[in-house]
Each structure stands twice: as structure tokens, then as C-alpha cells.
Amino acid sequence: MDKKDLSKAALEYHSGSRPGKIEVVSTKPCRTQRDLSLAYTPGVAQPCIEISKDPENAYKYTSKGNLVAVISNGTAVLGLGNLGPLASKPVMEGKGILFKRFADIDVFDIEIKTEDPEEFIRCVELLEPTFGGINLEDIKAPECFIIEERLKKTMNIPVFHDDQHGTAIISGAAFLNGCELKEMKPSELKIVFSGGGAAAIACAKLYISLGAKPENIIMCDSNGVIYKGREKGMNIYKEAFAIKDNGLRTLEDAINGADAFVGLSVAGALTPKMVKSLGKRALLFAMANPDPEIGYFEAKKLRSDLIIATGRSDYPNQVNNVLGFPFIFRGALDVRASTINEAMKVAAVHALAKLAREDVTDSVSKAYDGQRFRFGDEYIIPKPFDHRALLWVAPAVAQAAIESGVAKNKLDMNEYRSSLERRLGVRQSFVRSIKEKIGSEESEKALPRIVFPEGSQPKILRACDVIIQEGIAQPILLGNEKRIQASIEKLGLTSLSSVTIVTPSASDHRDRYAQEYWRLRQRKGVTREQAYSIMKNENYYGSMMVRIGDADGLLSGITQSYPDTIGPFLQVVGARKGMKIAGVYMMLFKDRTLFFADTTVNIEPTASDLADIAICCAEEARFFGIEPRVAMLSFSNFGSNLHHLATKVKEATRLVKLRRPDILVDGEMQADTAVVPELMEEGFPFCEIKGGANVLIFPDLQSANICYKLMQRLGGAEAIGPILVGMNKPINVLQRSADVEEIVNMARITVLEIQQSRTTAAFTPRTD
After folding, report:
1. pLDDT at 673
2. Which of 270, 303, 489, 626 stands the most exposed, by the fewest C-beta atoms within 10 Å?
3. Is 729 within 8 Å of 572 (Cβ atoms)?
4. Is the pLDDT reported for residue 760 higher than 90?
5. What is the DSSP secondary structure assignment for residue 138, as one 8-state letter?
6. Which of 95, 345, 383, 650 is catalytic?
7. Which one is catalytic: 13, 40, 280, 577?
8. Neighbour tally for 279: CB within 10 Å
9. β-strands 224-225, 217-221 pairing
10. SS3 letters across 181-209
């Protein structure tokens, strides 16, 4: 998008539908007279009284502990200069969005109409009762130093000037990883800065905390090298980085042979000649905003060996402050830190640097048009849309606050990470619970063997890489061995170097499997020759491995339609005796988890089928630690309509109660009756389900499939599945759109099913 198009789109974005980017949303209901009496007078008086008794109660009864003020006077807006407080408001609103989006922190943006540091300081000090933290933004130097230093001394909540420390922390992570790629220690690098403002000075200070030596740093501003005795453009903050006068006067003089260039100045400050004079494998951080000191591609063309970072999202290695401030404040707020100190900043740097060395998830790649990222010259800092940054940075900051003595709250870090995952969404919390269940199994038991019939698919291979590294299972890959090995080598998945690969058409077990398949299907029209040919098919071969016991579970489905995928499983493995196979989706909402069935298998189930589906789905809920409350859904409420489709559901309810009296079930009922406790209690107080149902059994595949997809796309639910229930062995089907993370999660669920089958009689071989 060119600048003209970007400008137009940005203005439309900010003005469209409703001006601005933020709104206030209530976290408590305010729909009835009772709600109003609790939210405001007379009920609101009670928390006021409690806070007056003990100010700490403000954190219990108000939003103070999760509320940050983003404050500016507009004297240094982005790279645009002194635009004034009003013109800075779009930036401050934007910061509010980022706080909320990435760390679930609420924000009020405040623009102060003064350039007098004393007035600014006093104004912010008076706001302390309202906020849990202060984020200073877009304030020019040197006033920004004076303001932050004073506020940190006089206020008992964290004060953080993001233009200084945010840039320092993110570039610090890039600096550490650049040193690793360059194979030099921070203390060994000659570092040259272009810029002597707030960000440059903060970066230099933090790099020293990371191991750089002050004597190896040369700082240049618009007047050239900062040296002792220079008078023009100096202040006490620049004076701290003044070098001994050695005759160097310009950036061009200073940069010759430098190991690192850190640009926080203006576009065009770095010339081709300067780039060529940098040392071997130099770090070039051109972070001027919005245009860097030199363009990425221009610099790469001059020197292909350089490790380059900029502030731009369209170049590799974007130094973006959003990787820092949301998570730093999250950790600081959650431990009730009185300040954000050097230890907390250094902890954030190391957390980000380590995260960049981890494998990058598919969800991150999706946010960047499918690009794959791997630690190296073009990926030395995480991407802003890597949700794991919250889970890495916030705990590191919180732990550093506790250890450095500035935290009021002491946290259990495992519990804290769980709470952070819940902030990211219920999926993350759910995945963590699965991990914990798997981890609680006896370590001496052999890892389950899961067969992947689509073994040559890159997504499957990347998922298996994670599965092996995390010790989840032993993958068995089916497909052409040479092709799979070539894909593994191309993807650089070293952990798969010794993975088991089976080519069905060349397998020694093919005859044995074909014979068993013929025995099963000889009265279904299958000949010996057909059975032998069918065993070339990976899904049939994998199903037979599971049936015979050569594998413990199976996952497949990303390359074929659902019916084509499930067919071999039904023929070879089949259902548990007396049970009906069905597809279940776990629908994860912010405040609840619901199980939907049957979403994928039975098109027009009978009453008996529905009863079996309900029983299997209830057992699946118990499998995940949720006591089932089963609602049999219809367009009728308890006999309000005698249509045969409604009476079928009523009969299914009777059969469930007859077959499994231990399961709480009722129906037939409409969907809103099932999930809104007030409706049920008011209209149908006789209903055996109290508090709303959590297992919803739909009358047919059509309604179930439509509903789960609408809930997923429009209702804000996250869908886990489809999970096959009623199967005789642990087999699950993947969605064709499944990414690596979803494949790994389904592998975890399959492992849990395998573990259950090892210790219970849940999976009983059929005898019919």
C-alpha cells in the first residue's frame, strides 16, 4: 500500500461508523432495577465505605488494579514532532487498543495541555488514586527524563516512559540475539548510536545492563559525536555518554569498523559509505520512525552479511514496542509493583530474546500471510502477533519484581501462567489443562504411538516435530519414505531424524493386515485381492495398525473430506459394543464450555441413536473433568409440540434415563431454555437441569453442524474437535483447515484417550 492509499485508509479507519477507536464496556450487568441499585445508589455506598476503611480495598472493589493511564502532552508525536496534546489523541487511543488486545489491560488516554514539566508532573501525581500504572508517551527530551524521574520518586504505582524503555527493551532482545548470531559477547562490541534523545539514551543504558561496556559506546546526535568538552546541544543526560575527545567529530568518523549501529535519529542519516565501513557481520538497527536511517533492502544490497532491524512492519526484525509495554505492565500490575525497575526491564529483554529462538506457531505465520519464521538473521525478535509473548514476558517481569523487592503480591508462577492463558482465551487455558493431565501420568510408561496416515504433509511433519520435542507421543508417519525424508530435511526438522516411517505398499505387514481386513469384510463383498490393494491406502493401513495393536491411536483428515477420512476407521476399527459413533465439538466461551453433538457423523439419527450419542457425549464431558448436564434439543419445550421430530427427542431422553440413570438429562427443550438458567427456572421449574446445560444434543447432523459453525464464526466461541466418541480405539479426525497448533492439540486429546484406555475398560473390543 503506497503512502497516499495508506493515508486515506487510516482516515477512514479512524472516522468510520463511530469516531475514534475505543469505548467503555461494562463488566457487570446493568439491565434490571436490582442491577442498578447494586451498580449505583444505594448499593455502591458499601464498597466506598470499605475502601475508606482500607485503601487497599480499591484493588478489590474497583478496576484500579487493571487500569493504566496513557498520558502525553504531544510534544514528540511519533516522528512528527510537537503536534500538541489534541493531535496526539489518536496515538494514545491506539496505545489503549494495544494494551487491551495484547494483555487485557484497560486504559484511559489523557492528553495534558502544558509543556511545563512542573505542571505536567503535578497533574499526573493528582491522578494516582485512579490508576494502577502510568504509561508516559510522546514527550520530548530532555523534559521526558525530568518528568519520569520525578514521578517514579513521588508515586507508588509503576511509571514507565515507553518511548525510552519500550524501544530499549525490544531492541535489547534483538541486540542479545544479534550478538549470538555474530558469535560475540555484548562486552566485546563497539557500538555507535545515531541520536541522543530519550530512546537512544535509554537503549544505551539498558545495553550496558545487558553487558555492553560504556567505553565501547559512541553516541552521536545532530551536532556530531558527543564528547567531553563539547558545549553545543549538550545536557546532563547526554553528558553521561560523552567520550574522551579523541578527534572523532562525525557519525562517519565514529562508525568505521563498528560492530553495531543503533539508529534512533532521522531518515537518511546512514549513507552507503557508512554502511560499507561497518565491521564484519555488524548489527544495523535503523529504527527511525516512520522511515529508517537507511532502507532495509538498500542496506542488504550494500552488505549481505549485516543483521538488520528497523521499526517497520514491512521489513524483517521489526522493533515494535507492542512486544514490551502490554506485558511489562501486565506483570507489574499483577504483583502490585511500586515501580518498573532495571531488573524487571532486563528480565523482559531475556524473555523476548529466548522466545525468538523457539519454533514459531502457525497462528503467527497466518497473521503474516503464511510466512515461516526461524531464528536467524531475518528473525531475531518475536513478531507482535505472537501471543506467547504474554506468557513469557509477564511472568519474567513479575518474578523480577518479586525478587527485587518492589512487589506487594507474591504469586505462584504456575498458577499465574494459567491465569494469563485464560486472559488469552479459554483455548489456551484448556490446552494447559490437557498438558497437566498428560504430565500427571506415570513417567515410566512408554509414550503412546500415534500413526499419521498423511505423513508427507508439511503441517503434519511440523506438528510431529512439536510432539516429539514436548514428549507427547511417538509419531508413526505413513507415506513414501523418500518423499517424507526429503520434506523433513527441507523443513529442517532435526527431531524427526529417527522417526518411524512406513510405506504401506512396501511394508512387511501388508499381507497380515490385508488378511485381517479380508476376514472382517469378506461378507461385505471384499475379495482377497481387493483387501490386498486396499492396504496400500494409508488410512486403511493406519486403521489396521491401531486395530491390531501396532499403534495406539490415529490422527488424519487434513487432505480429504470428512466422509472419505472416516470411512476406513468405521470399517476397520468400528464402534464400541452397543454404542454409536458421533462427532463432538467442545465449544469454548469466555464463561463456559459446552459440548455439541452430533456435529459430523449421523445425518438423521433415530431416538435410540440420539440416546447413544448423548451417553457418549456425557462420558466425554466427564473425561475432561466436567460433570455433564445434558439437554436434548428440539423446537419444542417439554411437549409443547407433538410433531414426530419433537417426540423422537422426547423418546431419546427417556432412553438415556433408562440406560444410564447416573447421567443428568432432560428434554425435549429449545436451545435458549437449555442455556439460560433464568428461562428454565421461570418457565419450567420442574426441569431436572439446574444452572443451565453444558452438553447439547442436537436432533440431527444438519442443525448441529450449522449451529457449531455459527457459534465459531459469529458467536465468539473457540471450537476444539471434532472428537470422535463411541470409537472402539482412540482415533480422531482433523479439520482440513487445521494448523500445526490444532494438530498438536488433537494429538494431546488422543494421548489422553490412549491413557484412559490403558487404565480402564472404556475401549472394549467388539465381539460381533
Report:
1. 94
2. 489
3. no
4. no
5. S
6. 95
7. 40
8. 18
9. antiparallel
10. HHCCCHHHCCEEEECCCHHHHHHHHHHHH
Is the bond leading into 598 cis (omega within 30 degrees of zero)?
yes
Collect all residues with Cβ–Cβ distance below 8 Å to 440 and sequence separation of at least 6: none
Nearest to 548 by CA among 451, 445, 467, 475: 451
Owner of C-alpha cell 504411538: 449
Cα distance between the two ends of the chain? 65
Mean pLDDT of the 436-440 span: 66
How far apart, in whole angstroms, are the C-alpha atoms of residue 133 and residue 155?
10
User: What's phi and psi for 601, nearest 5 deg?
Assistant: -115, -60
Neighbours of 647 (CB within 10 A): 16
Across the chain, what does the average pLDDT equal? 89
Most distant pair of Cα atoms in the chain: their distance: 99
Q: Find the Cα–Cα–Cα–Cα dihedral 708, 713, 719, 723, rounded to 10°.
A: 50
Q: Report residue 246's pLDDT band, with 50, 70 and 90 as the boundaries.
A: confident
92 closest CA partner among 71, 78, 75, 113: 71
CA distances from residue 560 to 75, 384, 484 in whole angstroms, order as listed: 58, 34, 19
Helix (H, G, I), strand (E, B) or coil at 134: strand
User: 725: closest CA among 676, 675, 762?
Assistant: 762
The sign of the CA dihedral 82, 83, 86, 92 is: negative
Q: Is the pLDDT of residue 199 over 50?
A: yes
* Closest listed residue to residue 406, CA positions, set 313, 343, 324: 343
Q: Which residues are bridge partners to 227 per DSSP?
A: 243
Three cell numbers written together for 403: 525478587
pLDDT at 577: 80
Could you confirm whether 100 is annotated as catalytic?
Answer: no
The residue type at 68: V
Q: Tell me, yes or no, if 95 is annotated catalytic.
A: yes
